[in-house]
Amino acid sequence: MSDLPEREYMEYDVLIVGGGPAGLSAAIRLRQLAAEQDFDISVCLIEKGSEVGAHILSGAVFDPIGLNKLIPDWREQDCPLETQVTADHFLYLGPAGSIRIPNFIFPPLMSNHGNYIGSLANVCRWLATKAEEMGVEIYPGFAGAEVLYNEDGSVRGVATGDMGIAKDGSHKDSYTRGMELRAKYTLFAEGARGSLTKELTRKFKLDEGRDPQKYGIGLKEIWEIDPAKFRKGLVQHTFGWPLKNDTGGGSFLYHFGENLVSVGFVLHLNYKNPYLSPFDEFQRYKQHPAVRDTFVGGKRIAYGARAITEGGFQSVPKLTFPGGALVGCSAGFVNVPRIKGSHNAILTGMMGAEAAFDAVKGGRAADELASYTEAYLKSPVYKDLKRVRNVKPFWSRFGSFFGLPLGGIDMWMNQLGLGLPFTLKHGKPDHESLKKASDCKPIDYPKPDGKISFDKLSSVFISATNHEEDQPVHLKLKDPAIPVAYNLPTFAEPAQRYCPAGVYEIVTEDDGSNPRFQINAQNCVHCKTCDIKDPTQNITWTVPEGAGGPNYPNM
Asked: Which pTM was predicted?
């Protein structure tokens, strides 16, 4: 390592890692405050995708509460949120039929009226243009690969990854050393299971005294459907089939734009059966009679997947550490029953920015932004998460059939000011939930028909995922022997199934002998499921070369 050239560096007042709604909102708020208080502050934002929005995936039904506060006149500024919710349906699916649940059963917080359907990726692209107009330096295609520390242990900034390293570790002719980006404060807005956030959580014990963070995997497709079947503004959610009672999850189907439908499936990653495949459950769901006809005569135009934080109130870590803070889904502010987190990401990005601005203006650097935590505890975000805090634990403990009604009762009691006087625990982390393969039945998934349901590889193709093939594999195994020696006999190596992109395979000889674990890293859509669900925590997701991964156009 001593032979490596020194990194060049740039210095800023505030550095932001991640170009999602939280990071971009923080950047905009910093520059707004600079203009309002006539105090210049330098702001840099880096994004590992090839462009802002390339790695953004969300449903998305968008609660505008955060955007209303950040940019009150966003509706007059060509924001790509144009489709208002006009109908809100909730269905329970059985194997062959469905029951629509009346809306009056749900507490008001579950209503989607007043919300908007659209592409969060495109909203982020729009926010990026606003940030740049205000003087924020945005660098897409630069992945934050390493946290930098001062001598006293406080965060100094981040270093971007080196470029031009071959698979064998040698330096290609194109080799370029990463850049050090130093700042008085660094805001981490990496989204769910960020690799740098994971390091910071461990180093500063940010999760001490908190419940383990819980996760789901969200899989999504965009379809262009027959205009005769298009119902602009329709929001439809389901639970039940194809999932069993003890497996949490559900679907969404949103009509937006012009003849476009976002269809997705969210599956909680505390599932028990190692033979379960989230991708194949999603494809099976689309064949249900209550859903399938929407897609007949249509065309699938996009696919993607992403982990979702689901721990909520109990799992929010300590938000600050010397030199920085966590904002957005890096800290896990998703409201699980509402399937919404973008509004809270924007609001926490703004709170983090306000704390950082006051600190810089006050001549401080690299200390703790305590005012951010204080603002969070008094904020609508805290209230939003607290009133639904028991829904996920009820669901996990009692299953969909009993747990969801119990969660609904709890939400109604909170609505009436009679909330339960206790907070249920989440229990063990998701990677500990799998049963042994010998105690479970394999699931016989139907073959895709190529019209409504599809295979993984054709799906990855339309995600426009691309990685430089001659680079080190960014999916690291702590012990290369574990997948075949332990995971295969114990859990039938679940990585083959929980990955929604065909990254992991068990490859054998023709006679089934000599199994080996193969990693097709070029397929990775950066969902982070492997980092979360691997039962021995043997897989560590790290950033590949900047600009690698999916290139979502409208997700």
From this structure: 0.96
